[in-house]
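User: two proteins, same treatment. go.

Assistant:
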Amino acid sequence: MESLPHCETLLLEKNGPALHVTINRPDVRNAMSLQMVAELSTVFSQIESDLHIRAVVIRGAGGHFCAGGDIKDMAGARGQKAGDGEADPFYRLNRAFGQMIQQVNESSKVVIAVTEGAVMGGGFGLACVSDVAIAGATAKFGMPETTLGVIPAQIAPFVVERIGLTQARRLALLGLRIDAEEACRLGIVHQTAGSDGELREQIDRAIDRVRQCAPVATAETKALLHRVGHESMSGLLDSAAEKFAKAIRGDEGAEGTLAFMQKRPPAWAGEEH
């Protein structure tokens, strides 16, 4: 396993097959700074080829997930001027965030978002690119950008992918804030927890399920799901059949079949695999 990068805005802890990433700027409700964006991107880049890490659990310190973009970075960008041939500082700031969100969305790892307190703007977008999202009782979700005179430029496409155009329109155009129960009904999160103990149990269950699934097969499945709707169905199914044949002939396919016949857990279900 590769060593984890040093981060100033994130706390990193490896536990079994999961990397726990805690956004650690509680004094500003974990607002997303450019440094945090860069550090999240570095973490996901570094773990991409590490088969020992199969899940990434993202949560916030101090009772909040992430309250959106950092006002100081916005003020700093306002004071900058684009040089000749350079992009507008606000464009660079916004686009860097979008690139990180896309990277998390397409990560081969199972991304588990544990949402509590403020889940706004960029934090809302981060929740919408998770594979499993769990909401604590205090979670409040929203896209407040239009109430601030700006637009949810980088997160809007991912919100539409998550909950569909009609619900995304209502949330974005009215700048609504919704609770955990409504977020679950809309499909922003998959489950809610009424207490800290229940939240921990749901996280543990999700990680245990990740452990039962073969890492390469899981990564290939996630990549396949992301291709749906972006290419012709017949071509997609041709490609998927090729990947299926490769998988079943590969090490994981052989081990999974043998384990099933021998009525034992597959090798990857062990603690350190």
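Protein 2:
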Amino acid sequence: MHQTTLQELFLEELRDSYDAEHQLLKALPAVAAAASSSELRAAVEMHAKETQGHVDRLDRVFALVNETPRRQHCDGIAGILKEGESALNAPPSATTDALLIAEAQRVEHYEIAAYGTLVAWAGTLGLAEAAELLEETLEEEKFTDEKLTQLATSDVNASANA
């Protein structure tokens, strides 16, 4: 479909993000299982719970705009997850953890861009309540990215280099 209005772009991005979150719900348990660091595993497990909250918020946003929640395949997240498959199949080690963090941060950066766009568009469209819900998710994605950076720089990268 060729979008002609900001409202149509917003709905397309909403559906794309909805699919991305569902793809992540499916992938995160394998990421947690592949981690050798208990801190990394706990962070991934916590983010899996947050991701379910992201889906729930998106359901609420769909309701606010009188749309049925529908997924539109997110090629971006699918590609990032495909690239990260090698880390899931590698033996658990600090090096694998470093790679898992790198792949997870690629996901977070993608989601930060998507949710930032959704927040801006919701604001422009006068969808204040939707913008607030999307902003909550955006802030959680930023926090997860910061936590991953902290894990990488405080221990995992140095252990991978030992």
